[in-house]
Each structure stands twice: as C-alpha cells, then as structure tokens.
Fold each of these.
Amino acid sequence: MKNIPEEHKRVCAVIDLDAAVENVKSLHNKLSPGTKMLAVIKANAYGHGAVQLARKLDTLDIVFGYAVATAEEAFELRRNGLDKPILILGYTFPECYEKLVAQDIRPTVFRPDMAKELSAEALRQGKSLKVHIKVDTGMSRIGIFPDDTGVSFVRQVMGLPGVEIEGMFTHFARADERDKTSTLKQFERFTSFTKRLEEELSLHIPLKHCANSAAIMELPETELDLVRAGIAMYGLWPSEEMDRKKTLLHPVFRLYSHIVYIKTVPAGTPVSYGGTYVTAKEQRIATIPVGYGDGYPRALSGKGEVLICGKRAPIVGRVCMDQFMVDVTDIPEAVQGDKVTLIGADGTEHITMEELGDLSGRFNYELACDLGSRIPRIYANLLSE
Ligand SMILES: *Cc1c(COP(=O)(O)O)cnc(C)c1O
C-alpha cells in the first residue's frame, strides 16, 4: 500500500479484500464439489469489518451464507442489504425473535423454551423459520447432548409448527492441534447421533456441519454438507501446530502509522511511564501515535517491534494509551513523518498478527478483535499491487 489517505495517517488498518477472496478459494479447493461454505464474520469479521467483507464475498457462488455470533450482528448485515442465509451461532434472546423471523435469519436452537417461542413467533408472522440445532460433542458450551435427551429434544422440535430443521451442527474444541484423536471422537459422536435421528425419527437433515478452519485444512473428511470458515479466511492460522505447507493463505490485515516525533536523548534517559526503560547511550527515540486505546497491546511494552524504512525498531518503555516509543538509533535514515508498519511487510521484513499475538500473551484471534473501533479501516484490493 503506497499511499495512506492523509486523514488516516495517525493509524490505519488496510484490509485486503482480494486476499480474503483468495483465502476463501484456497479453502474451497480442499472441499468436495457441492459442499457449502459459511463465511464466519462474527465480531465484526474478527475485527476486519463484517459488512465490507460480506459485500466482497457476496459475489462468490461458493459462499452459501454467513455465520455470526449474535442477533445484532445478523441485523447489521440485513440492514446493509446482504440477503444470503445468515446463521447465528450463539444463543439468541427472545426479545430478538420478532425481527429474526421477519428477516429470515437462522437461529441456533438447543433449549426447549427457545424452540417453542420461535415456533409461536413464526406462526404469528405466518412464516416458516429455518433453524439449526447445536449438538454438544465435547465443548461443553452450548448444545444438546447426543443421547436420548437429545433425541427427544429433536422430536419435540420436529413437532413444532412454523419451525423447519434445516441444519444440525457441532463445534470442535481441538481441531487445531496436531493430534486429531479428540476431534475425530467428536466427529464420530456427531455423525452417529445424526444417523440415529435419521433412522429413529426419519428426519432428513439437509445441512450437517462441524468443520471450522482447522478442520477444513487438516481434516477434510469432516466436511459433511457445509463448512464454517473463520480465521483462515483472514489469512491467519488457527494455531502454531497447523501445517503451513498444506494451505496457501494470504494475510488480509495490515496496520500502519507514521512517526510524529524523533529526538536524540543522552544516556540515562528514562522512556515512558514508570521509567522501565533507560537509554544505555545516546539514542534516537521515535514516537508513534498509537496505543492500547486502539487495542495495540500494552503487553508489547519492551517486547514488540515495528517496521520503519524496512527495518525492525524495538518498542522501548511502556505502551501508553495513545502513543508509544521505539528506538531508531540503528535506523539513521528514519525521519519524522515516515510510515510505520505495525502489522504487515516493509521490504523484506514482515510482522504478523501471530507474532504480536504471541509476544503480547494473546493469540491472533484475540488481537485481531482487539484492534478496535478507534482504528479506521480502509478497504483495498492489493494482491495485484
Ligand atoms: C468462531 C466459530 C467458527 C469459526 O472458527 P475458526 O477457527 O475461526 O475457523 C466456526 N464455528 C463456530 C461455532 C464458531 O463459534
């Protein structure tokens, strides 16, 4: 990205929509023809911008629809004219049912009271609502048990008017680990349960699904009818244990700022709150106008690095709410106004979301979500640049 708009010089996230499309294609290539894909764009698309991402992905036939975490996120997509199927992965509160039914948003159902109230609302509106039932096979988060109680729950939902079971799904707790034993156990629990429902209740379940990014990449045998692609779509890896050679992913998120001040200080000068860093010699210190108020982790104090003029500059002292300092003694060509790359590439150097996640004791999913609303996002198609 050569030119950051003047008004976003303080800090700016550049989201490469082309890269996201390439990642979707790369994941899709692993699937059998006919397997559908939900693009998981919860938490504002892991901080990347849900509406903009969905608008870009909407044109792809391979994207069946979207998965979000909350009703509010689903409504936001509808409000912005996105009308592919939307599944809410988490619990939905009854206050939202009227809008949910009106906007044909699929809820995840796992409590009898939910099922009854959704049915009543669908009848009130004279509609049929497609729902997905969540099965708990090992997360102990939400979902019915794949046992007799689960079977009787499903039987109950089948008997409710206005509610149509379109899907059934479970979620893997450890698909990103090298050892897939527990994931395969979860898969087995899920498929034997759905098989039992099909046999005992003669239920046809059009969309059975369980695969997240890690499973799409490393356990394609779990793809079933539909997969839910999240983190990998953003070019990020579910964990360090993933085999990076198996899938080609392009990072989507870049983060830039500019140097606002450079000064030379004598040896013995403390830098930032607490004076935790003291210069050992005469040093050049540059100030970057970004801080934990932007979601840039304070835990990077004294640990993180940024790229200036294609070189790594270490963070010195504590990251403040709105600013932090780096040492540019070894980058004599650095001047005020220079571009600073916080995440992304500059020349041959590269700082990844994973690197900063690790250094700050977070992980990449979390850091992406943390880079908050004070950071403007600009959308570009950069792969070709
Ligand atoms: C977040 C989420 C996903 C996507 O997981 P990734 O690891 O980001 O691919 C899939 N399914 C459910 C239920 C989720 O909550």
Amino acid sequence: MEAYFDNNATTKIDPQVVEAMLPYLLETYGNPNSTHTIGQKAKVAVDEAREIIASYLNCLPVEVLFTSSATESNNWALKGVAEALASKGKHIITTNVEHSSIEKTAKHLEELGYDVTYLPVSETGHISLKQVEDAIRDDTILISIQYANSETGAIMPIRDIGKLCRKKGIIFHSDATQGIKYLDMNVETQKVDLMTFAAHKINGPKAIGCLYIKKKTPIVQLIDGGQQEFNLRAGTENVPYIVGFGKAVAILKDVREERLAYVKHLRDMFEEQLQKNIPDILLNGGEPRMPNLSSIAFLGIPSDTFLARLDMEGIYASAGSACTSGSIQVSGVLKAMRFAYERAVSTIRFSFSHENTEEEIQYAIRTITAIARSIREISSQR
Ligand SMILES: *Cc1c(COP(=O)(O)O)cnc(C)c1O
C-alpha cells in the first residue's frame, strides 16, 4: 500500500486539470501576444483562467498576475513594493516562520538598507494582532504575513492585520500558498493588498504561480521585458499551465468546504489513534490550524530514521518543510517555536488531502505504531 501524506510539499495533479491543459500543449500552441487566430485563441484561454481566479478571489481580472511560482510572487511582492516605496520609508514587518522565499528576500532587502522586523511566534506557531500593532513605526511601508504555515498549519489572523494596515495606510501582503486549500480567499474580506499562491498545492501543475495585486498598489516590476501581464510581468505567458491553474481553482471552488470537513475527519482520527497507541508523543502547534496538518514529535526517535522506515512501507511524509528535508538541520519553524532540540529532531509532518482514504489512515496508524515500538525497543536494549 502507498499513502502520500506530503500534500503541503505538493499535490497530485487532477486528471481533469491535465485534460484541460492538453489542447494548449498539442493544438493551440500560439503565442497569446500574436494577432493571428491561433495566438488569439491562446489569449482567450489565458483571459478565461484569469477570470476564474479573479472570481474566486472576488477581485478584478487585471488584479490577477501570473508568475512562475509562489516563490516568484513572494519575491515580487516584497522587492517590488520595497523599491516603489523606498522614498516613503524602509521598514518592513514579517514573521520568523515564513517560507524561505519570504525570509531570504527579507534578508536580501536588509542588505540593501531596509530594516526588517521578524515577529516571533508563540509556542503554537501563531502571531497576534497586538504584536503587529506594537511593531508598526512611522516608516513602516509593508507588512508580509503568511496565511497558514506549511509545517505547523498555524493560521494567522490575516483579516485583523489587514484591517489594521488599511487604517494605518500600510501595504499588506500575505503568502496564502497553503491557505488557499481550505481558507477563505476573498480579498475584500481578508483586506489584503497583495496575495501569493500557486497551482501545485491545489492539484494543479507545478511552476505556475499567481500574485494578486490590488489596483493602485505601488509596486515595480521584478521581471523586465515585454508588455505581458498588463505591462507588469514580462515573458510569454505559460498558456497550458495557466489554463491548468484556472481549472484547478474552478474545481476547488465547488468542493473546498467538503474537502475541509473530510481531511479534518481523517486527521483527527489519525491523531487520536496514535496518541492512544504510542506513549511519549507530542502534537505540535495549536488552534487555529489547517485541517489537513498533523505535526507530531515521536520523542527519542530521530525523524530521519523514522521517515526512512516509513518510506520502505510506502508512507510518504516529511520532517519540517520540503526545503529543509534532506539535511540534519533543525527546522527553522520549530526553532522559532522554541522547541527543545529533542522535540524538534523527532518531529514528523503528515499533510493529508481529500485523496487520502480511511484505509490509508488505518494502514498508517498500524505501521507507525509498529515502527515506533520497534525503534524504541532496539534503542532501549543498547
Ligand atoms: C510551497 C510554498 C511556497 C513556494 O512554492 P513554490 O511553488 O516552490 O514556489 C511558498 N510559500 C508557502 C507557504 C508554501 O507552502
């Protein structure tokens, strides 16, 4: 049996998405910037995908900008706004648990003379509105705070922060690459000026991203060149992937609530059983958190050993984020939550999806319980 529990790293593409993309790979290969028929057909497809996403976000199509990834969107949001507002101020606020594409971009801006405040999260992985409020200065130009954390599932108070930013006239960006799966993406209610997300976390193709940019937000281009994307992001549009992105969002629209309830049911069953079966395990994080996420410390068992054993049994999970796996470094997010070393190095992240079945969960519970017992037995005999 195989059980894929690494859906926060990426998801399996939906066959309906592939089907929607194929004609734009095989037949309608024109450049949307060309004026002939085959080019214009490609343009129509891009426009349609943009409209689907705009309607999902409750914004205008011109506010939906396609990029190569969530990584590019995050780079663009921070660098673009920072450059556009440099004469107004140079202070930026973010958190100490952002994705590397925010963290490294913020560090880069520090090298260019910007001043960045990294708000520390609580032991459950959250930040509070009060922390944001207290960090705001006269020269604060931009606040960038993720919607939901990929490692702990912590959901941040985006709407309240957005409201505060509107009141103070500060630009607000949120990395919603995880949030999009289960949370409200209405940009009006969430009060964001910029919002990042990507297709491959919602069963779309990899390497296609989006940046929502509210009209009149001061921002400069990251990618210079042609006049694509309303003269804001150069380069020939990735037509088939944009079509796939649109399809993935169109599907999500109808099933988000249903998927949320289902994955939460699987996750709760998983956590409840494991807690009954295995002593000395700790659940990481706390509410509010994403319904598909379970971060568990199996005390005394190094996560790399555990993951290798799980992999042999066809169970695919991760330690920390995908970007930090493969190295023995302790996850920056768990460090930020001030976890003891022992807890951090024994933590495994299981991220479920609507495609997982109860059978898979039961199989995983049995297997994880058996592996944990056998590893602990071996180490206690030493
Ligand atoms: C996956 C992810 C990203 C980066 O996505 P890419 O497709 O690798 O660019 C950014 N932020 C969050 C919160 C993510 O989960």
